[in-house]
Design brief:
The complex is a heterodimer. By secondary structure, chain A is an alpha+beta fold. Chain A contains 18 helices and 10 strands. The radius of gyration of chain A is 27 Å and the shape is globular. Chain B has 6 helices and 7 strands; from the N terminus they run H-H-E-E-E-H-E-H-E-H-E-E-H. Classes of the chains: A alpha+beta, B alpha/beta.
């Protein structure tokens, strides 16, 4: 019964989407207020209906209703409750429903909190959001119905892919989707602005909080996903340049560019058509990601089940939305006025560099991701493009970005004084140069790129800290004065500092864990000792352990350092009898200096006896990646809470005096 | 100029779309690594031995028209999974009494020689494919990879990845039995 409610809710949502996508447009062009308000009510109704559908599906999973095909395929009565719930979005159909729900959520968000947005722009934005909903709801109902029944029901379900039965992955898709799909509203804003034919500073200000919210979620989602890959897959890496990873990273890169270019549009009225283009392309890349993951176009370790019919449907959706919006862009963008002029050395110039590098970086990744497809189409050859390509093309592109990031915030708008900047940063420059020479002297054969990246990370960290200290006159004024200044600074400024610091911290993690990693794979029997990075790891045999829906072989590893006891690690190899799959549960000793990472795989019969394949990895500084990511998210949240940007915030109250005029930012 | 430039994104997307339409055709399976080589004759190649060890080099002639099937293993000293599969492969070759041929892929001679000295050398012949050119002819997508060649020199089985699991070794053994059982011309 409940699945039918969900089914009906979806069908109703489709009908509502038809209204949402048409009436507000008509209203906006004819100046009909009633029709324009339909946008808000339908957006909210849409969200409620999608939420009902989603709750119905979740209910089916929670009670293990095996008359629903989706539940049979992805759940099992023995599974822990949290993974029953997370199985709701573990399948293609379920995750599509989540996609649509988040789409509706952002639409409803604009309907509820968008009181400060002009009514025609809001109506048009919601209508565009309605088109996207229409596309995805019809896709779901026509090709991937999550509520399909299975009569007669089987006794038990097939269980969720055990790799996905993990807390990191239970949370990763919702967060990633909020990011991915969140850019839809930015896209809708951009298309609405193109329809209106007007982009101004106010537009950029309305768009920014939504961009920021999506960006925060995407940052968190990607970090969580890479954390999951790190400890669950047992490969000991956190990023593999897999197509599915790339398609989540590209919207992040362009979204980051968009965040920065929107600042220029807001503050200086420049970069208008570029900002619009970025808004369109960012969401286009999200759509593209959905297409890649669900169409089976490229080979990847974590794509959904392949179905060409679905692929074609999404491709048509993709063609209509991306092609349509870009055609509209080609038609309307030339009419947009260029904004304020600026010198090459200026805040705008810095942000232009940022945008250029991020866009080229995105293009590089897109090319690398699709190159196997291009080559196969042209020559029939099959290849895969892996880390060497991306490390050699993308990474060097990002290094100048780190430099610009450290410098940019010091620059003033329009025209900056280069010599004053050099004056400010001269000690840092000397320090960095000395450090570079020192490391070069010590390690002439070392990985040059790694050393350079590490130094630029340091440069960024110190320059960002200096910039902030200078703003609040830390050490040059009494502490109370600095504190007052810090409180007076806009939160967006603190947010920028935090996020830039976060990236610098991430860079240390990226470099440390990839350039200075140690890795040992060996066959171990009881008593085998492995030496790695100063640790002695003794293999103390394997025990059988029974879990709720799996059996595990648990190895004990006694770790000592210079004879002193450090810890005991228990990596596991789990076998899930129902899903007939095995997973690796790595055991990790986390420290700030580096992780000692152990995983165990079953022995080959050939080696016989009690011999196990043991893999031990030392990953220096790897935790900096997630600490840095936390800073990025924190910085984003800080910036989002800025009063000036707060969604639906009332005008600043009179009793709260305006803070001191802040330095040009 | 600007009028033209604004059409650029649309154009790029249209070209990409064309590739996607092509990519979605039903017969295409991106996960299938080309098995065009399977059931074909081993490609023509002639590789010198690794400097510093006694094992002779490997060429196509060593695989064709032999009295027994053989196993060709592509390995490298820089490849961590190769290290893991090495004892398995060694034991497999000994137990099955099969000729084990190695292609040392994109490796420095001294590194490869050191690796073999450390872990033991189970190979009857090893070709040193320093440039990776022969690897391309064999359609190698990554190391390690293992092929079964029947007595006539036809590739009958290909396995990409380390031979460490029971299942992988079982598949290899089955393939070898099949390759040995195939009569000429059948």
């Amino acid at each position: 019964m409940i699945p039918e409610i969900g089914q009906i809710a979806l069908a109703l949502a489709l009908c509502v989407a038809v209204l949402q996508s048409t009436l507000p447009l008509v209203g906006a062009s004819r100046g009909n207020l009633l029709f324009m308000h339909v946008g808000q009510s339908t957006a909210i109704g849409q969200f409620v209906l999608c939420a009902i559908a989603f709750a119905s599906l979740m209910w089916a999973f929670v009670v293990s209703d095996f008359t629903v095909l989706n539940v049979v395929q992805n759940s099992n009565s023995l599974k822990p409750m949290i993974y029953k719930v997370s199985a709701t979005w573990g399948s293609h159909e379920g995750s599509l429903l989540l996609w649509t729900l988040i789409l509706a959520l952002f639409g409803a968000g604009v309907a509820v909190f968008g009181a400060n947005i002009p009514i025609t722009l809001r109506a048009r934005t919601l209508a565009v959001q309605g088109w996207i909903s229409l596309g995805f709801l019809s896709f779901m109902l026509l090709t991937s119905n999550p509520f399909e029944r299975m009569i007669p029901p089987p006794l038990d379900g097939n269980d969720l892919n055990p790799l996905l039965q993990d807390i990191g992955l239970a949370l990763h898709p919702p967060l990633l989707y909020v990011g991915y799909v969140g850019f839809s509203i930015v896209f809708s804003f951009a298309v609405a602005a193109l329809i209106e034919g007007r982009v101004d500073a106010a537009w950029a200000r309305w768009v920014r909080p939504w961009t920021l919210a999506a960006w925060i979620a995407l940052t968190g989602g990607i970090a969580l996903g890479s954390w999951w890959a790190y400890y669950e897959l047992g490969w000991g890496g956190w990023w593999f340049w897999d197509p599915v990873e790339n398609v989540s990273f590209m919207p992040w890169l362009l979204g980051t560019a968009l965040l920065h270019s929107a600042i220029v549009t807001e503050k200086r009225g420049a970069f208008k058509s570029w900002t619009i283009l970025l808004a369109i392309l960012t969401f286009s890349l999200s759509l593209f990601g959905t297409f890649i993951v669900r169409s089976g176009l490229l080979t990847s370790v974590h794509a959904f089940a392949v179905d060409p019919e679905r692929g074609i449907y999404i491709l048509i959706l993709l063609g209509l939305s991306i092609g349509g919006s870009l055609a509209l862009y080609a038609w309307r963008a030339p009419a947009m006025e260029g904004g304020g002029l600026f010198q090459p050395v200026s805040r705008e110039g810095g942000l232009l560099m940022n945008n250029l590098l991020l866009a080229v970086g995105t293009g590089t990744i897109l090319f690398g991701t699709l190159y196997p497809l291009f080559l196969e189409a042209m020559t029939g050859a099959k290849i895969s493009v892996g880390p060497p390509f991306f490390n050699l093309s993308f990474v060097p592109l990002m290094l100048p970005l780190l430099f610009v990031m450290g410098t940019g915030p010091f620059l003033s708008w329009k025209r900056a004084d280069l010599s004053a900047l050099v004056q400010k940063l001269r000690w840092l420059m000397v320090l960095t140069a000395v450090a570079a020479l020192g490391i070069w002297y010590l390690q002439t054969n070392g990985p040059v790129l790694a050393v350079l990246a590490f130094l630029l990370g340091g440069w960024l960290l110190i320059a960002t800290a200096m910039e902030w200290a200078q703003r609040v006159k830390l050490f040059s004024a009494p502490f109370a004065e600095s504190w007052r200044r810090a409180k007076g600074l806009p939160r967006a400024t603190h947010g920028m500092t935090l996020a830039h610091l976060g990236l610098a911290i991430c860079v240390f993690g990226f470099v440390g864990s990839s350039a200075w990693k140690e890795d040992v794979v060996t066959f171990a029997s009881t008593g085998t000792i492995v030496e790695i990075a100063g640790f002695d790891v003794r293999f103390d045999g394997v025990q059988r352990v029974q879990g709720p829906n799996y059996v595990a072989a648990r190895a004990s590893l006694h770790v000592t350092r210079n004879g002193a006891f450090v810890t005991v690690l228990y990596p596991e190899r789990r076998t899930y009898p129902v899903a007939r799959q095995a997973t690796t549960e790595s055991a990790i000793r986390h420290t700030l200096a580096g992780d000692l990472y152990a995983s165990v795989a079953e022995p080959a019969a050939e080696t016989g006896g009690d011999v196990w394949t043991l893999r031990i990895i030392y990953e220096p500084l790897v935790n900096f990646i997630w600490i840095g990511a936390a800073f990025l998210v924190l910085g984003g949240c800080m910036s989002l809470s800025d009063r000036r940007l707060r969604v639906g915030a009332p005008r600043r109250s009179r009793t709260n005096p305006a803070p001191q005029a802040t330095p040009a930012e | 100029m600007r009028r033209v430039l604004v059409f650029l994104p649309l154009l790029i997307v249209a070209v990409l779309g064309g590739f996607f339409v092509w990519g979605l055709n039903g017969d295409r399976d991106p996960n299938a690594i080309p098995s065009a080589l399977v059931s074909r004759l081993a490609p023509a190649f002639d590789l010198a031995p690794i400097d510093g060890i006694d094992t002779p080099g490997l060429s196509q002639a060593d695989l064709i028209g032999q009295s027994d099937a053989s196993v060709v293993n592509v390995f490298a000293s820089w490849c961590v999974p190769c290290r893991a599969e090495h004892p398995v492969l060694t034991r497999f070759a000994r137990e099955e009494g099969v000729a084990l041929m190695g292609i040392n892929y994109k490796d420095r001679a001294e590194d490869a020689a050191g690796w073999l000295r450390e872990l033991g050398n189970p190979y009857d012949r090893i070709g040193h494919d320093f440039t990776g050119r022969t690897g391309i002819d064999w359609g190698v997508t990554g190391v390690p990879e293992t092929f079964v060649i029947d007595a006539q020199g036809r590739i009958t089985f290909r396995f990409a990845g380390p031979l460490v699991t029971e299942q992988a070794v079982g598949n290899l053994r089955d393939a070898l039995i099949t390759a040995r059982g195939v009569e000429p011309g059948s």
